[in-house]
Amino acid sequence: MPETVPPVSEREVNHVRPDPHPSSRAGNDSPSPSSFYCMDSNGEPDSSCLDFAAALTNPVTGAECILVRQPGSLDAPRCAEDVPPPSTEAVPEDLSEESEPDWELVLSQIPGEVQRAFANLPIEGGAVAFDEELLGFGYINQHTNVFAEVETQTFSESLLGINVEIRAVPVEYQFDYGDGTSRTSSDPGGPSAPVRARGADASSWEVETATSHIYQETGVFPVNVTTTFIGEYRLPGEAWTPISGSVEIPATPGEADIWRLSHRHVSGACREPSHWGCSGPVELGPGDRPPKIFAEDYDSSGRYIGSHSP
């Protein structure tokens, strides 16, 4: 029956090392290496410790093993050969390092990002315009040409790390003529000159255009246009793709200055400014201001100073 080896306290046994030169010590009474590590508090060899060390002799090499204790363990020391090897579990990747983006996920989020970007783009609403030679001047009960000057606009945005082109396309125009009437059109209108060139031998206010208006009263009327834009976006190397929804952008307003046309027969050329028709192209009443096309023909008090038209 094997002999039972009594336990050795951790205070008395730290570790046991094999004798590196066992042959040199043969035949003498020198203590074995184990005895140097099995001393009690009085410096004397501890037989229990030596027996314990002998019991730990490696059966393969015949050498005494080194006693070790696993970090953080309160178990008794064990031979180094019996200690489990360090864990080889893979170390997680450093989460601080940037990884390649999931492009499939990114591309699936682009439409929503584009829609939000489109709704907040600095889209220009353009301006209300009139024929250049009239600058909003018109006569009651005759056509006054009004149109919207607005263009398609393209923007470049960086969304989710991708350069995206977004363009705003005007498709509908709401005209408010300032006299209580309005019109919605898919045509922004334009100068009347091309209409006259197609055969109408008439002045601008006698030509009807897609967006012209007939005023029933004289006065200065604020004209507003609100343009509806739809959007499209394009990724690098791809075709244009529609954007869901639309935005409405107001244009810079204009003014229609409407006058009454009066005719009289006279005996000859003007001799006195006080004579009818001799105080300028328009007859200013109290509080009136001259139309923009005649502004240079009157002084600040409204007195006619002569034609300055080319």
Structure description:
- By secondary structure, the chain is α+β, with helices and mostly antiparallel strands.
- The protein has three domains: 23-82, no CATH class; 125-261, no CATH class; 263-310, no CATH class.
- Helices cover 12% and strands 25% of the residues.
- The protein contains four helices and 13 strands.
- The strands form four sheets. Strands 4, 7, 8, 9, 11, 12 and 13 form a seven-stranded mixed sheet that branches.
- Mean pLDDT is 76; it is low at 8-28 and 58-63.
The secondary-structure element order is HHEEHEEEEEEEHEEEE
Q: What can be said about the biggest beta sheet?
A: 7 strands, mixed
Uncertain residue segments: 8-28, 58-63
Quaternary class: single chain
Kindly report how far apart the N and C termini lie. 135 Å
Average predicted confidence as pLDDT: 76
Strand content: 15-25%
What is the 3D form?
rod-shaped
Q: What's the helical proportion of residues?
A: 10-25%
Computed over alpha carbons, the radius of gyration is 51 Å
SS field, number of helical segments: 4
Decide which structural class fits the backbone.
alpha+beta
Query: Number of folding domains?
Result: 3
- The tally of beta strands, per DSSP, is 13
Give the SSE map.
Layout: H1 33-37, H2 47-55, E1 67-68, E2 78-79, H3 103-119, E3 127-130, E4 137-139, E5 143-144, E6 146-149, E7 153-159, E8 162-176, E9 182-185, H4 193-197, E10 213-214, E11 219-234, E12 241-250, E13 254-259
Parallel strand pairs: 4-13
Antiparallel strand pairs: 1-2, 3-6, 5-10, 7-8, 8-9, 8-11, 11-12, 11-13
